[in-house]
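Reopening this one. Same input as before:
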Amino acid sequence: MEDKHSQLKITLQTFGWSVKETDVYIGLLELGKGTVTEISRKAGINRTTGYDILSSLFQKSVISVSGKEPKQEYAAESPAKITEYLEKRILETEDQIKKSKEVVPELELLYSKKNRPKIRFYEGKEGLQNVYEDTLTSSEAIRAYATVDDMHNALPNYFPEYYKRRAQKNISIRAIVPETPIGKERQIHDTEEKREIAFVPSDKYYFSPEINIYDNKVMIASWREKLGIIIESEEIADAMKKMFELSWDRAKELDKEIRTKKTRV
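Same output, byte for byte:
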């Protein structure tokens, strides 16, 4: 009998009933009727919880209540009421689906406005620090076009500590960088600062402004104009990432050529 009851409870739970609702309902079927104290004792729950569960079952129309406290009694309705309850839910759900189709177009308008590309502007040295601080939120490796000389000249006391913090957050970076004395000095620290540099000839590829691409963002830092911009857009960031990968392949070839020339010299 216990196994049969267990299976019945499992089936009732597939209708969206909680474990305690099934315990109370099966217990009430066995009792026929009873007070909240009797039913709670039968179901193995406390009296306060019993009131809550009985109220829930009453809302489902599968039990009835008569009398007044303290002699109020609950009784199970015909189990056929379960089917009626589920059929009612189906009708309510169909009505909700119909209404949702009516309201979705308006909600889509709000959604599209919310998810339009966001552009934030920052000015001055503090603004440039702000756009760089945002790169520390990245959940992936940063892709960058950068001229190290301009970075360090603009914020000379900022970057050494920034590199450490980025590495501590385990955010790596791949950077296409013009071959300059400061750039070559920085490359010495690539491993500890979780960076991979591909050098390109500085006479042909001197990047200004700097561009960082990460997550759904593109960060632009104009060191000369002291202006920082963050564009937040899945589409734009994805396009920039693809463009970077094309550039990265060529940059690695140029980096190899630069290293080969040095070896020959």
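So the earlier flakiness isn't reproducible anymore. For the record, The mean pLDDT is 90.
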